[in-house]
Amino acid sequence: xxxxxxxxxxxSAPLACPGEHWYPLSLPLEPFLAWAEHRGTPxxxxxxxAVTGLLALSTEHRRTGLPEPTEHLAEELLHILLPLYAGAxxxxxxxxxxxLLALVDHTRETGRLNAKRQARLAARVRELADGFTEAMTxxxxxxxxxxxAGLMRAxxxxxxxxxxxxxxxxxxxxxPSAERATALGFSARATAGxxxxxxxxxxxxxxxxxxxxxxxxAARLHLVALDExxxxxxxxxxxxxxxxxxxxxGTDREEDWYETQAxxxxxxxxxxxLDALLRGPFAHLAPGGRHTAPLLGVAASLAQEHLxxxxxxxxxxxxxxxxxxxxxLAGALRAAPLVQSLTAAxxxxxxxxxxxxxxxxxxxxxxxxxxxxxxxxxxxxAAVVLREGAxxxxxxxxxxxxxxxxxxxxxxxxxxxxxxxxxxxxxxxxYQEAGTAQSVARQAAxxxxxxxxxxxxxxxxxxxxxSGPYELPDPETLSALTGLPVLTEDDRAELRSVAAVLxxxxxxxxxxxxxxxxxxxxxxxxxxxxxxxxxxxxxTANLPxxxxxxxxxxxxxxxxDGGRLVAAAQWWPSGAARKTLGDWLSGRGADGWSELLAALxxxxxxxxxxxxxxxLGLLDAAAAPVPAWETLLDDPALGEHAAHTLRALGHxxxxxRVPEAARATYLADRFEExxxxxxxxxxxxxxxxxxxxxxGEGAQPPERNAAxxxxxxxxxxxxxxxxxxxxxxxxxxxxxxxxxxxxxxxGHHDATVAEEARRALRALQAExxxxxxxxxxxxxxxxxxxxxxxxxxxxxxxxx
Length: 800
What we know:
Layout: H1 4-9, H2 29-38, H3 45-56, H4 71-85, H5 93-109, H6 115-137, H7 144-154, H8 162-173, H9 177-184, H10 198-230, H11 251-269, H12 274-279, H13 294-310, H14 326-335, H15 337-347, H16 354-363, E1 366-368, E2 377-379, H17 381-388, H18 391-411, H19 422-433, E3 438-439, H20 440-447, H21 475-482, H22 489-510, E4 515-518, E5 521-524, H23 526-539, H24 554-558, H25 562-569, H26 574-586, H27 589-601, H28 609-614, H29 626-631, H30 639-648, H31 660-685, H32 706-717, H33 722-733, H34 739-745, H35 751-770
Antiparallel strand pairs: 1-2, 3-5, 4-5
């Protein structure tokens, strides 16, 4: 099959390069250049053309024939417009500022500025000069015409000669793809822990900026033409004489005219005929001119999802498992079943099914040939990347494929999204789980708005087929997976369709190698984690409050000290925290246990203290050296936790060393566990099908606080001062975590206990009201990527 590269480079005769009719803006540029020459400050004609032309398209004031600059226009010109349209080598950049300063002086000389305004405007232009240089040289702010024009001038090409421009592009297309990427600045430059796909990202940005720049310039030309038709401007001639308005051939013809003129005008500021060449025979050298690269959408959506979950300055997510190397990432992508199918389609696109062809076109594996009118498909630039690309380029292609596949899934009737971005949100949730396997049934229940306890950890082996079409587990297993007791076959039937859609989405993503499913269990693969991490790094790269360390690798996580690990792990899902803590400890031995337990003991009092204490429950306590637990006995917060652990492991614990505050803290945590379990039992005791039928005799819940009251009574019997003193101690132990327990105890049958609980609760509520508010991190984590309230307004919640 003919590739885009071989189809250009293999021609025996020179390519016939299209010519263009110059349609200059009607500005008196020559007199202005002569005026500058006469005063001893000659100006570069191309820079003068770009500055005056762009300013003229931005203002209606041209009473001297030339546009009249203002501070606002100067900033827009130097920081926005010229970085979109002007091709200039770094050494040429001061010339553009010189033109603008000369235009300020010229406006003053013609009586359109007084001396004070002239001085202020000139000073502002000089202030803007540094930002102009930065904008013109920033890798992420370029366009394809600017890039190629700069390369041509650097190699001595006459950019005003359309044939020379075309000839250079033809020779450039014949260079190896790696050499072209290096020349354009898109070769992989990944730093340690940074995104490997940064080159692909910059290339996608160039395509997006090029497409928008052409469209915006055409719109400016059209607005100027409309303004000149509808308004008279005394003392100045038309800027666009002869521009069509309401052409008899229809609006499409008119829009095409302005698009063409936008290309002609911008070519004057870059290189002759360049725009038409990059949209025609050399379109493979400038991808992204027709639609947004999918990887840009993936990265932007992931960044938005992350900020919605954690806000600015987020703590690190759990370290994720990645391929062993970038080469392994590239190999995993090439080996994915979907990529294998796409590779076959490159040889015979006419034999590929329509969704596969659409996917290949969306990512640039295929292009419609510019040489034939019937839309013959040829290989695109991504085909070369797939065969020969560096690992970083493959990572970018993987993100493009992921974005395109997600778009197809969102549109497909069998996998349609209920809200925009739903499928990518699921992948982001899986990324937070850091390789911990999830249940299709459990996630389907969450998605269907069942009130599933998010802290519940399923403790059952799922009895479903290991492969083949997905089958929802039986009601008993479904109850074990969701933590919802006594589910029935009717519940299973209601959930079946939601679970089937989720399984289909997972299986389709598995064809790209980013997910894997065995029966009811599924997770992200190392390739999936790598692509999601690339998207998160790219999407948050320019956000000042998000550090790349927010998305650590497993290697980076193992290098953390105990304090940093504890501070981060408190926000992670329990499965991810358990895995990471275990891996960290296994690599450090006894010293690691001492360091980790010391970091947990060093937790300051505050709203996060209970979260950090909960990490103790995720540790394999039996693997810790006994002395490490014994050292913790004296700790005022964790002493009783350590004593309890030692006794559970069959060791003696010296209770005399445990502070009373540590005993109260342990009991506060224990009571909260009991309270949460009781709350779930109460919530599930009254099922929708057992609700009041109108006679007032609906099913009644069990006694509200039986389990908590029993545990409290047992502890109070051995507490100095009894139940009333224990309540006071609980309030002091953790004023942030104990209010829910105190609220339950305020209904205790012992009046003294109830009154003390109410008094302590009022005091804690007053303290909380006086404290400054603090945004809770990870607030959305528990939602598992579900939509915000209102997006499911038509759904009936299955559990109350």
